[in-house]
Design brief:
The complex is a heterodimer. In chain A, the strands form two sheets. In chain A, strands 1, 2, 3, 4, 5, 6 and 9 form a seven-stranded antiparallel β-sheet that branches. Chain A has a two-stranded parallel ribbon with strand order 7-8. Chain A has helices at about 10-15, 30-75, 160-165, 165-170, 200-230; strands at about 80-85, 90, 105-110, 115-125, 130-140, 145-150, 180-185, 195, 240. Chain A is built from five helices and nine strands. Helices cover about 40% and strands about 25% of the residues of chain A. Chain B is mainly alpha-helical. In chain B, a hairpin with a 2-residue loop joins strand 1 and strand 2. The chains are: A alpha+beta, B mainly alpha. The interface of A and B includes residues 5, 27, 46, 54 and 61 of A.
Chain lengths: ~240, ~220
């Protein structure tokens, strides 16, 4: 028989064959505790230091990704405003006691003339593998989707991930009228609600369409109320604005 | 304990006792994240960093760590390095960090790393431990790079994102899916085993008639 790989030939001999190396007979529990406590404290300190360096960078990256996504789905707005979704409607100030990062938000984009273009709305639902997180732009006046971008998904490479990589599919959301209706390839009737479903990625495609429809169903009353307030002359200056 | 030369400590992990290809350790990351070369490089570098850092500390403090709590202490040291690697990757290469997902954190349970601490770093001088860790880490990196290149070329028609075969190539999607990892590892191990067998055969033939005369006799 072929000799097995000489993995621990020399090293394992000490553990298995020969008696173990002489150890001090007893070590006080105190010493064990002190050793592990000191090691734990040093490890904790090291992690805190690295975290202090890394966290701002990680947060900055997240903010950049979101900013780019808002820009993309609202078709390059001049600037946009973050609005928090509260029980009473959309508000420029976060609801009290809620973490501004975790709070549910929509983003209202404006063109260079200061006219609102539309809202960027995020949504997440289970797809084929895991939750699909996406953001889409919505022109509430015309009732049309402005664009869609998947932010996070673990859909099958080569099949489900076409919801990100298939440019035709992504472009199909531009100017589609809400609520969206998914149709199989080649069965379009020319209706403005129709969006193509990707062959081989049916579940993923339907999830994307579902997320947009469900989010709009939930938010439509809030968006309508907010639009009414804007029309009534609520100033643009209220709330934090961010450049593109 | 067999005495080894410094040179042997370094090159052993790279080739003769390659952690993935010979010892079959650390297969979980080698199968899971080698679907592209970029991911393989990130995983190889992170593992290399954790292995070398842990070996340095374990070898330095080996006399201060009581025998009874040595495994806990090793795990603590390894976990700290993994957390640091995780944070640094998230800050520096966020896209690759997202692709690797949980597998960065899972470096903690890579038995290749704990194995080197228990079997080598805890018993040798610091210099030797570093050489051994560098060799083993490099061996791991070579193995995952081989798998990553094989899988990305066939599964995506590209290498490091650059197209290799042009537009007309139809990617073998299965190669970047989990089964592709098993297939690739299988083929690489097959080639490696065949090569070792063949080398052993050549040595036997050269030794004849003084050494082992034939394969049947050896068996």
């Amino acid at each position: 028989m072929r000799e097995l790989p000489t993995v621990h030939k020399g090293e394992a001999a000490g553990a298995a064959g020969a008696p173990p190396p002489p150890e001090p007979p007893t070590v006080s529990s105190r010493r064990l505790m002190v050793t592990l406590s000191v090691a734990g404290a040093v490890a904790g300190l090291a992690i805190v230091l690295v975290f202090g360096w890394a966290d701002p960078r990680i947060q900055a990256h997240r903010a950049r990704v979101l900013r780019e996504a808002v820009r993309e789905v609202l078709d390059a707005p001049d600037r946009y405003k973050t609005l928090y979704v509260t029980a009473g409607g959309l508000s420029a100030t976060p609801p009290p006691g809620v973490d501004t990062l975790a709070a549910e938000k929509v983003f209202l984009g404006y063109d260079a003339a200061g006219q609102p273009i539309g809202y960027a709305i995020t949504g997440s639902e289970p797809g084929f593998q895991d939750f699909i997180l996406l953001i889409f732009g919505y022109d509430a006046v015309a009732g049309r989707v402005l664009g869609m971008k998947v932010l996070e998904s673990k859909e099958t490479p080569g099949l489900g991930d076409k919801i990100i990589k298939d440019e035709e599919f992504v472009a199909g959301f531009r100017d589609a009228a809400a609520p969206l209706v998914g149709v199989k390839a080649g069965r379009r009737t020319g209706d403005e609600h129709e969006v193509d479903i990707i062959t081989g990625a049916t579940i993923s495609s339907r999830t994307v369409i579902g997320i947009i429809n469900h989010r709009l169903e939930t938010l439509e009353p809030l968006l309508a109320a907010h639009r009414a307030r804007l029309a009534a002359g609520e100033t643009l200056a209220a709330g934090k604005e961010e450049g593109p | 304990m067999r005495a080894t030369t410094a040179r042997y400590d370094l090159i052993r992990g790279i080739w003769k006792e390659n952690p993935v290809l010979v010892q079959l350790l650390g297969l979980c990351p080698a199968l899971a994240v080698t679907n592209t070369v970029a991911n393989s490089i990130a995983m190889g570098l992170a593992t290399f960093f954790v292995l070398v850092g842990s070996s340095l500390l374990v070898a330095t403090f080996k006399n201060l760590i009581p025998h009874e709590v040595r495994i806990s202490a090793y795990i603590l040291i390894i976990a700290t390095f993994v957390t640091i690697a995780d944070l640094v990757l998230a800050a520096v290469v966020p896209l690759i960090h997202k692709e690797l997902g949980a597998f960065i954190a899972l470096i903690v349970v890579n038995c290749m790393i704990l194995g080197r601490q228990e079997a080598f770093a805890s018993k040798r001088p610091v210099g030797r431990a570093l050489l051994d860790a560098a060799g083993t880490g490099a061996g791991f990196m070579i193995a995952v790079l081989m798998m990553g290149a094989f899988r990305e070329i066939l599964g995506n028609g590209s290498l490091l994102g650059f197209s290799v075969f042009g537009e007309s190539f139809e990617p073998w999607i299965i190669m970047i899916l989990p089964p592709g990892g098993f297939l690739t590892l299988g083929f690489i191990l097959l080639a490696f085993g065949w090569w070792r067998e063949r080398k052993a055969e050549v040595i036997r033939i050269r030794q004849w008639p003084h050494g082992v005369a034939s394969r049947e006799e050896a068996a």
